[in-house]
């Protein structure tokens, strides 16, 4: 890997990869196969600091295309071919970059396939973008709860494979908490449907032929024989981390077995997700957003631990650096009066605290003591000096959009790269 920027025309696709693409085409691959410099260059970066030039980029049309790609790559002659799935390319660690072939699931495999409101789930292809899904669900009064900042680009395939979570994870958890079923294509092109099963069924799954049986036998053996090591090693965090979550395979009393705990967060290294059935959450009827103003970052952080006790749906801190950068952004005039103190006290950091629920009175009960405390102590050094409350959807959206812009604003900081 190399640090950007590095724009240098590179040679043609390697002979083996060239051959791989030709055979794919001859065997009826329906999507697009691209080796042109422009397409490779675009997918040589994501939201990380890295740039890695792929040999080719392919855009599968459907699950059969994915199966064909993986089946072919498992042949002896193509053992050296490496494949990396890609969604929106918003990952921040270079997870979707490769020197091999990028398999971009976002261009064609982006359909919402089935909605079951009675049972509260939706079935999607991996290239569906989070905002696309939630815009569709909104009229039905439900939503997919894990919420990442780049929701306008991040795909469900990418969110599953990074076990993404964001605003609202305090109460809604992360993506893996909302997965009911994953349809995957394995490294030899085999299809696999993974759901939570009870312990009795594991023995049946272990008898399966092909890679699937091997997977169940291996995972069951590992999580049982290394139980203590896994228990002692894995941190118990509500916002987990990307990686193989061995601690999540068995439930507390070991009565259920969930392979999806491993698949989610596996960064595309275990299987290609071709479809997902996801649990939906009812949209709360009421929302209140509280913006609290502070003279310093330390004051805001110290206060955050008190604010969390009021059980908000989300809490986020925007520090002086981001607020200063935001002043030069087009969004600032729209949020200025809510993030600045009307009496002119310098506001260097803010906390955004959202409360949601079905009864506005319940939310007010949580928010009023906080506001009273601020009014009482606003002239005491180290305490918050002001606040703004809104229940207006547009204002709430604008304020969260300011938060969403945070990483992008930091990325635009002038200085040496
Ligand atoms: C400004 C900013 C803010 C962010 N905020 C958050 C946040 O709040 N919380 C958070 O968790 N993350 C956050 N992220 C990280 C990133 O947005 C998430 O990880 C997102 O879920 C990635 O989705 P994507 O579609 O862009 O995936 P990509 O970046 O394209 O891929 C991510 C991983 O998923 C794999 N993958 C993609 N599709 C498939 C598939 N069909 N089958 C198997 N593997 C697949 C890729 O190989 C790769 O390993 C943020 C990123 C940015 C730039």
TrEMBL record:
InterPro entries reported in the protein's UniProt record: FAD-bd_oxidored_4_C, FAD-bd_PCMH, FAD-bd_PCMH-like_sf, FAD-bd_PCMH_sub2, FAD-linked_Oxase-like_C, Oxid_FAD_bind_N
Cofactor(s) it depends on: FAD
SUPFAM superfamilies: FAD-binding/transporter-associated domain-like (SSF56176), FAD-linked oxidases, C-terminal domain (SSF55103)
Molecular function terms from GO: D-lactate dehydrogenase (cytochrome) activity; D-lactate dehydrogenase (NAD+) activity; FAD binding
FAD-binding PCMH-type domain sequence ranges: 50-283
Gene Ontology biological-process entries: lactate catabolic process
UniProt entry keywords in alphabetical sequence: FAD, Flavoprotein, Oxidoreductase
Keyword Lyase: no
Gene3D superfamilies named among the record's database cross-references: 3.30.465.10
Protein name: FAD-binding PCMH-type domain-containing protein
